[in-house]
């Protein structure tokens, strides 16, 4: 017994050593993946660089591993269920060894393919990544690093399988200049390198990116990328402010702060609201892009700035401002005070809820700086982050709604029933609007949660870290930045508010001019006056041009797009003053032949007679003229020509102009605004297939489909892009109709060409830049062709609407078109449309194949 008690200290020491030793040591060694047993495996690897037709260089890695089952203990687990722990452990050991890190830059083409037979297991592992910054990239077994300015080093650094000579390694540099640092490649044809039976540590290639890709990387990494966006906003704000300042002096009654309405009330001039929005949006863009988006700004200060800015935007919008039909008595003033108290109260309470999290984070188990990295996540903390994000997002959505209401109200765009309800029951109206805004904010929050969980599964798919501290910090991080991520997205689409404001101001001017002209017995002229041109050009640039700028590439050229679109449209208008049909008839033709409805009706009758005479002439040429003679028909044509000359009071119009051409140049409506609205409606319906085609191409292909489930704003962008495309077609149609009588060209499709030319000037310059930088210009080409097609169809429909009263005399609209265009003209129009359709189908098919 004494001898056994003497051995007791040794037993205690042994047990203590065993209990304190790591798990890997107790299992017989530190290598739990048994990587030494993989030394009998066979490995093939290939890396490919793809730079052509892309903004960034794409790098693809392909690796095939054949493992003998008898040599590696974990080989059988590779064939287990892919959701099982055994599969993930075996796959991680095979691909990454002891490396348990997350790879955010690595994207899988597909799940690893595993096939097995009686003796071996074969694993095919394919992935890709993008060189979008100068940060190092871990991609499959490769490490891609930038240490020498423009040069990049691609080295084979596998976490496992590093102790064997790989069977075959191939590097396809895709036209990049490169240096083989190993000096052991068995073949090189100037584009690819091949190694056989070489150890991984000896394989490294130094590649040199072309200056085109290096410039994009340097631009994205610099502050100039943010400055480019801010510059565009500031430039747009300056243009809009100039237009608003010009309008304030152009609208009757604007000098004294308001315009007198038809019912004797007084309304705020919408030019003042547009000026306020222009200055405010430019300032907000600078704050968001240049201040709050900087990485050194803490989550607390960023959220505080967003909350205060959203609350300020709501109050400055003043949706309780009196509309054009609002009376100015004590009852109306009391109603506006109730509206103001309701809006201010709801906005302040919402902001206070968000401020509670920011100013008292300890109530929600959050750190003082709200940093997601400094605390272990709790359920209460996530509630605090969610409340902070939802309230901030709701304030910004409410601000956008408040500004849209004010623009529409002061521009006389709202239905009278809506205005009466708002004046009578403001609390109910705010509640009705608030609920959908909360629903939208909640849906965006749910979308962010779903997408980021997918993202986590992608970056940590081999490590199975769900529920760990690392996963908790990841959740905290995207919840803490939830509001700011979507605020940048929301504000990027707030240009639509500017379009609403410009549209409202044009409508306000139309109403005021018509009322003013009616009181003095004056006519309103052929088209928009000089004061309206800048507004219409701004509408064109913000709706049509901005879509093209987004398709074209970097934000550095957005400001250039804006200026060029406005300048090219003014160039087209300058040509229209000389070459448009109505301008070539002189100043006297409008008051003599077009100033009243009766005179315009006479013009349409003359145009109908002209078409009938031409039809009889064709029948006479075919020997089917009946009793009518050629001299009689020529006499009628001379009479119609003389009627046209007499309207010009001595100025002889060009010989090729006819009463039919003049009628088509006037358009279907009496006022240019009515023409613009009709063309906008037509362009909306013709644009639906075009928007669907562009949206299909945006989401076609493996990469686009992948981003839908991994980018927080990808799914909302699908909806927003469809709306933005429709706004672009509507904006183009509106401008076409507004300038219908002033655009150069004798035929209506030529007017569509003229407007497309105004868009094509910056598009062609950008296409040259895209071609020079070796990126893909086909989407911009498709957008341009679709724009021309939509405008061509709109112009043909406008011609059809001009003679819509004759529809009762024809069996179909196509028959009426035959009468309007005659046989040759209609054949040319149909052939031209079919040519455009063929181009569109070819481009769509080519792009769809390239992206799949």
Describe this protein's structure.
This protein is α+β, with helices and mostly antiparallel strands and 852 residues long. The chain is built from 27 helices and 15 strands. A hairpin with a 6-residue loop joins strand 1 and strand 2. It starts with a helix and ends with a helix.
Q: What are its keywords?
A:
alpha+beta; 15 strands; eight-stranded mixed sheet; 27 helices; 852 residues
Summed up:
The protein is 61% helix and 10% strand. With 852 residues, it is an alpha+beta fold.
> What is the strand tally?
15
Compute the separation of the termini in Å.
81 Å
Proportion of beta-strand residues: 5-15%
Low-confidence stretches: 1-29, 252-267
On the 0 to 100 scale, the average pLDDT is: 79
Largest sheet features:
8 strands, mixed
Tell the overall outline: globular
Rounded to the nearest angstrom, the radius of gyration is: 35 Å
Give the helix proportion (percent range): 55-70%
Report the total helices: 27
Decide which structural class fits the backbone.
alpha+beta
Helices and strands in order, then pairings?
Blueprint: H1 2-6, H2 8-20, H3 23-26, E1 42-50, E2 57-68, H4 85-96, E3 107-108, E4 113-116, E5 120-131, E6 137-139, E7 142-148, E8 151-156, E9 166-172, E10 177-180, E11 187-188, E12 192-198, E13 204-208, H5 211-221, H6 224-248, E14 258-260, E15 266-268, H7 270-292, H8 299-317, H9 330-359, H10 379-410, H11 416-424, H12 426-459, H13 469-480, H14 482-492, H15 495-520, H16 530-552, H17 558-579, H18 589-594, H19 597-621, H20 630-647, H21 659-666, H22 672-699, H23 702-708, H24 714-738, H25 748-772, H26 778-802, H27 813-851
Helix pairs in contact: 6-7, 6-16, 6-17, 7-8, 7-10, 7-15, 8-9, 8-10, 9-10, 10-12, 10-13, 10-14, 10-15, 12-13, 15-16, 16-17, 16-24, 16-25, 17-25, 19-20, 19-21, 22-24, 22-26, 24-26, 25-26, 26-27
